[in-house]
Design a protein that fits this description.
By secondary structure, the protein is an all-alpha fold. It starts with a helix and ends with a helix. It has 20 helices and no strands. The chain is 81% helix and 0% strand.
């Protein structure tokens, strides 16, 4: 099909009700990418026992996915721009399904970690293609706000849905089906993409894929996250920890230098250089750290302290996606009227209050009084934060850069989640050790030490929500009319003829 014919089909599809069916397909695909970061969390002890994985290596069931995903996202976004967003969307779905089968059928820890790594690699193709398809499909301001609210709800709520699905599958079928379930879901999404997602015209390619940039940013991120993980076992001052963190920082600095000099950069620095987008990306880096603090340590609290079954633990998280769905819907209505800054500020404040509430957990506290209100506040805050940062990060981006801009937003969230998991786990482990040392004669010492460590992690998570507030206040300056102008200016760029 010629470029003109593709553009005509795309324009026609965007003006028809099929674009809402395309949104359903895109959101469905995004769901499996997001929930796969958490669906295995509740299954971890069962996989560890069946495959004889050591305690020190168990974390790689999570980090093998998030590290590769976050590290390769920028390359995946540029490939979406150059090779076609719809094409890379479907390649990502097929590859993700195959990698999920490899991990789900693993016979040892090594095979499981390799499968999870491949999942992350194909998710790095799928995720930026999905978000950039959405950004060029919905160009009218109010429709885009609605589409972004759906996408944000899926992105933020998918982690909680993953907990629920993981608990049910682990308890009633097998931990393996937390991975194998992706194959039929991806098959449905591929059929939907063929039927409802319009073909797009790839951006003209003027050079290569900036392999030096891809290598330096990926290895740099892996080094930093692995350094945080090592700190939990060997301490912050060990040569291994400091060496890994130093190598990571140096490689990321080299990456910036490579991008400045490259004729065809993996990340054009003009994208994060605009103040609104830069602010949105910083928020996207900080908020998942706080969110993962809640998911990770509440999961431990439910199962280790209250003795919840895997399914009960998953159900306990159910108010979270419900709260996000409500707040994202309200945000989509208000965003074109009052702009993103007041909504995002309100969301961050709710997040701070919710995590400070959780940080008061003690032995014997009930779910209804100690957890549910705090969880609901955090959920209501996440809706405006996710919708707002996605709207700001993607508006007024040239169509040729929409894939890499989407990838940068996804990368910020994945890196934040990976770094946050490693960092807050290290902080929590040290807090538990200190509590045991300082309180040797206390009754129920193990349980009290665990709860104390969770509370410390919740305080740290609240700190990341708090850090987002001045960033939003000073850097998110878009007015409602700016978002509308941005949407209108993209119409011509998104529909080449």
């Amino acid at each position: 099909m010629s470029d003109t014919a593709q553009a005509a089909e795309t324009a026609q599809r965007r003006g028809s009700p099929a674009r809402w069916l395309a949104l359903a397909v895109i959101a469905f695909a995004q769901l499996i990418v997001v929930l796969d970061a958490t669906i295995v969390t509740i299954a971890l002890p069962f996989a560890q026992r069946d495959l004889d994985i050591s305690d020190g290596n168990t974390q790689w069931m999570l980090t093998a996915y998030t590290l590769i995903f976050g590290g390769l996202l920028l390359l995946g976004g540029r490939m979406a721009d150059y090779l076609g967003r719809r094409r890379m969307f479907m390649i990502g779905l097929v590859g993700f399904a195959a990698a999920s089968a490899l991990a789900g059928l693993a016979q040892n820890g090594g095979q499981l970690f390799v499968g999870r790594g491949f999942q992350g690699a194909f998710a790095a193709l799928l995720a930026p293609a999905a978000l950039s398809l959405l950004s060029v499909t919905f160009t009218e301001a109010r429709e885009r706000a609605t589409a972004l609210s759906v996408f944000a709800g899926v992105s933020a709520g998918g982690a909680a849905i993953g907990m629920l699905a993981g608990g049910a599958l682990t308890e009633y079928v097998s931990w393996r089906w937390t991975l194998l379930v992706n194959a039929p879901i991806a098959a449905i999404a591929v059929v939907g993409a063929l039927l409802f997602v319009a073909r797009d015209v790839p951006a003209p390619r003027t050079g290569g894929y900036d392999i030096p940039g891809a290598v330096t940013v990926t290895v740099g991120l892996i080094s930093i996250v692995y350094g945080f993980s090592r700190a939990a076992e060997h301490g912050w001052t060990s040569p291994a920890t400091l060496g890994l963190l130093a190598v990571g920082v140096v490689l990321l600095a080299v990456f910036v230098g490579v991008e400045r000099r490259s004729e065809n950069p993996l990340l054009p620095l003009r994208i994060p250089g605009e103040i609104n987008r830069g602010g949105a990306l910083l928020v996207a880096l900080l908020i998942p750290i706080a969110m993962f603090a809640m998911f990770l340590f509440l999961s431990f609290y439910f199962q280790n302290i209250h003795g919840y079954s895997p399914l009960q633990a998953g159900v306990a998280f159910l108010p979270f996606p419900i709260g996000i769905a409500v707040s994202a819907g309200v945000t989509s209505t208000l965003l074109p009227r009052i702009g993103p800054r007041p909504l995002m500020l309100a969301g961050a404040v709710l997040g701070v209050v919710g995590l400070l509430w959780l940080a008061q957990l003690g032995l014997g506290d009930s779910y209804a009084l100690a957890v549910l209100p705090a969880q609901s506040l955090i959920a209501l805050g996440m809706g405006p934060l996710f919708v707002g940062m996605q709207a700001v990060a993607l508006h007024q981006v040239d169509a040729a850069d929409s894939g890499v801009a989407s990838a940068l937003l996804n990368a910020a969230q994945q890196v934040g989640g990976a770094v946050g998991t490693a960092l807050l786990t290290t902080v929590s482990v040290q807090a538990a050790k200190d509590y045991v040392t300082d309180n040797p004669g206390v009754s129920d010492l193990a349980a009290r030490a665990s709860i104390h460590s969770y509370d410390v992690a919740f305080y740290a998570g609240a700190g990341f929500f708090l850090a987002a507030i001045p960033i939003i206040a000073l850097m998110i300056r878009d007015k409602p009319e700016n978002l509308i102008e941005g949407a209108e200016s993209e119409v011509g760029a998104a529909l080449p003829v």
